[in-house]
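Lecture notes, structural biology module. Today: joint structure prediction for complexes of two components.
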Amino acid sequence: MNYDAIAVTVSQLNSYIKDKIAEDEALNAVVVKGEISNFKNHYTGHLYFTLKDEKSLIKCIMFKSYAERLDFELKDGMKVMVFGSVSVFERDGVYQIYVKAVKKDGIGDLYAAYEKMKAKLEEEGLFDEQYKKKIPLKPDVIGVLTSETGSVIRDIINVSTRRNPKTYIRLFPVPVQGSGAAEKIANGIRVMNEKNLADVIILARGGGSLEDLWPFNEEIVARAIYNSEIPIISAVGHETDFTIADFVADLRAPTPSAAAELANPDIYELKNKISTYNERMRISLKRKLEFMKLRYEKCISSVVFKDPLKKINDNYVELDRIIKLMENFIVSKIKETKLIFAQKVARLDNLSPLKTLTRGYCLTEKEGKIINSKKDLKTGDEIEIKFFDGNQNAKII
Amino acid sequence: MKENKFEDKMEELESIVKELENGEMNLDESLLKFEEGMKLSKECNKILSDAEKKVTILLEKDGELEEEDFNIN
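The predicted structure, tokenised, for the full assembly:
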């Protein structure tokens, strides 16, 4: 057999295969899922990687014009779905996927896991309002759990310093994504509590994909937050991202900057508040004093204080009046008694012996004794006869 | 950390202000409360003024945590 007649060149074969594949409509538009590996971001802007599963792999290339439209960065280990067409690179004799778009895969699974975890912890009561601790008004030390590089810690420091130029921030650096991050975050919360390193903790991370934020959805982090004695403010991802950490935390801040605002009091506002209190106390005391003064003046202007003798004088007048009354009463009583007395004397007078004598009777006395009977007298006795106008001596014959 | 003295003091101060404004105390009580309030407000101001700015990072060295100054730049 003359093999020469049927032999083709490598180029011809590759070209043939390329044409065959190009003819296959299914291969012109494929959606393939797998894990990225050997990722290379070429300086030309084209992206090279292989897509693999447990058993097999395929080369992929994404040209710059398509790569520019990606809204996330491709990384080794990332589970994705690629859209594109299968074609042959004739020079190397390989077929590969010419990728036009990439979508993250496994998001559906992650969402399901998120919802499941959320439901479980909610059921257990980890999100209950009753367990939420109050954020202190003015913490002495603000603990921050985040990465020591990047804009998150910078924003927190800047905002904190603006609100309180004398703020005290204690950063506990932790990885905020990737495997092992959740354990480190949980450990950080535990250590901060054990060693009493802060009055409030900000748990923060910048925006990212659901996968990037995943450590904040893990149970170990949720439980560490729940068990923390120190109040925790969470600020994970963008305002629209809600992680499980946000639900368990004592307070959720939409962004790391907002968390810094919630943790730090505005010192100028506080000082202002204190001076307002001082002013209010002064006004109240002044009012009290004025009120007391008014009462005092009212008392002082009352009659008792104006003419303290008036009452006494009034009493004297009354006393005088009563004395006068009594005097009058006594005088008239005396007069009346005198009159009665005179009448009685007059009656007595009529009955007196002297009055009888005027009617012609006489009294006989011997040696000063009145003689009532003739037996008391004998001849020769000297007697005294009393007439109404005088005495005459006589002798019994 | 410790009990939050600042917050307690502010709360106490606030209640004294309200008591004074209420005006039901006699003059002696009012004066005492006023003095107490003034003392509290001074203490609160002192807490705010006495603090010192610190930004630190906790680093683990040989199993022990060490606190060092942290400069983001």
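Point to remember: The helical segments of chain B are 5-22, 27-50.
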